[in-house]
User: What shape does this take?
Amino acid sequence: MIKKIGLLTSGGDSPGMNACIRAVVRTALYHQIEVIGFIRGYEGLIDNQFMTLQHAQVSGIIHKGGTILKTARSDRFRTEAGLTQAINTLQQHALGGLIVIGGDGSFRGAIELSKRTQLPILGCAGTIDNDLIGTDFTIGYDTAINTALDAIDKIRDTAESHDRVFIIEMMGRDAGLIALRSAIAGGAEALLIPELHHDLEDLITKIKSWRSNKGSRIIVVSEGDEVGGAYKLAQTIKPHCAGLDIKVSILGHIQRGGTPTCMERVNASIVGHHAVLELMNGKQGCLVGIIDKTVTLTPFEKAVKHIDQVDERLEELIRILSH
Ligand code: ATP
Assistant: This one.
């Protein structure tokens, strides 16, 4: 019988984390399980900074971006001393389980904890990148792609009015999925992402061959693409595209914020709810995700292996639909 669990959000924040926190807390309390939330991810675990989470603490948060528990990237947690301190905190609270909401780095941290303590740990995928194995959509991804799409739509207005070429940079150091989806939905003309190799000469040829009556000319690039981001791309192609007005727009952190979409809130609620149930069932060391509409447990070791391939036919789709 679990009497008390810990909860934390770690890594980059993502819209929907609050909905997940709410689901964990409300499900746990429903089953008479006490919940404490550590503040600023693994930093809070090291420093024993926490708050007791009752119904009131998670009231009115389902629609809010960010995380009420705050989050952090903790270098101390990567050290043996930090891990030892974190384990001391966990033991001090006599927890029956820990739920970590975060991305692949956070689950690597959870793996390190699991090597040093018997405490059952489960994870919910909270990252805008959607790059984890074990869930179709990570918490934050749907909102991020809709934010990115909204930006493309707005930039298109000015691009069309001035006959400009716009290079729009999306977040994604290793994963280009935000760029890929928003590029398709935004009707972009070209896409550059880390998962696909690009020939810049081909891109320049393509830009030069765009028909003169083309309404929009939008190139979407991930920050982590081999070309080095939007400014580098603009620098590279400008000398070859005389007569074209090429502008750059970096979306940056707006992709992390905002009101979580309906899908985000539903998915976050489902995985948060099930994370508690699975802890009660004795499960540990897994990501609780949704695959093909089914709640699925995937061992952390497998979940953290990056999805580094995309369906190349989607790039072809962009090429054909934008010609
Ligand atoms: P996002 O996808 O938004 O970047 P993330 O969870 O991948 O989220 P990271 O900064 O990579 O974000 O990881 C979060 C934290 O997890 C790190 O700051 C660090 O404290 C911990 N962590 C990551 N990798 C390890 C590791 N190998 N050992 C111990 N702790 C780790």
The chain has two domains: 4-140+260-303, 143-256. Residues 120 and 283 are 7 Å apart (CA to CA). The domain at 143-256 is CATH 3.40.50.460 (Rossmann fold).
